[in-house]
């Protein structure tokens, strides 16, 4: 719940702070996230040896408390924008560059047969307006949200079953460690590459995301085809490299498509993504129990990437 409340706020602030070169800024942030994720297991192990389990949990809790000052630092940009006087005789000020116009559409008058029906209709209209559910009436929004949800669910589900796939294939613990290290190292290198690329070239976030989804589907098929150890290592490196092309531009795709309605658009995306993730659990279990093969689960997740690319 905390994660669901925090992420829209973080990405909304990010969307407000960066008008240009958002891909480069997001890539830099993701590089730091990946570096911390790689170093965290080592630090946790060191803390366990030094402070024990309770001390480590206390340190992690203290680390989590840093979220509060971090969230408090997400202040509106307008507070720090340069102010200019309207005229020489007026003391009123306006924010430069903040000439936003609200598009107000006339609400059609709805006739209802009974007073009760009218109250229900008014209540539904209030909910629809508050949650901006009218976005679901736009085919482009539905297309983007479903595509992002399918691809993100596929990516997270694949990385969760990846160690099990390697274990089932008969790889030893050392070989599994090497493959996983290769995967996450390639992921970190890719984030640095995306940062350097987007800092020099202005690329659409949607194109980056589609590139990552399409080629991830292709190389997952190649992953299932081969069974030798070094083949798995090479394909894992490529899949790790492609992972950043999905995770980095994901919130920016929504920001580019709906810049003025990003808060509600991204929040609704998270709701849809949660529903898609919940539905994929039973589907993966059904595929595994029906066929008795984990590679069929990989094909199911690959199909989600293909649907996103299409």
TrEMBL record:
Pfam family, one: MFS_1
The keyword Ligase is annotated on this UniProt entry: no
InterPro entries given in the database record: MFS, MFS_trans_sf, Proton-linked_MCT
Bilayer-crossing regions: 24-44, 141-166, 178-196, 208-225, 231-254, 266-287
SUPFAM superfamilies: MFS general substrate transporter
Keywords of the record: Membrane, Transmembrane, Transmembrane helix
NAD as UniProt keyword: no
GO MF annotation terms: monocarboxylic acid transmembrane transporter activity
PANTHER family assigned to the protein according to its UniProt record, in alphabetical order: MONOCARBOXYLATE TRANSPORTER (PTHR11360), MONOCARBOXYLATE TRANSPORTER 7-LIKE PROTEIN (PTHR11360:SF309)
Name of the protein in its database record: Major facilitator superfamily (MFS) profile domain-containing protein
Lineage of the organism: Eukaryota, Metazoa, Ecdysozoa, Arthropoda, Hexapoda
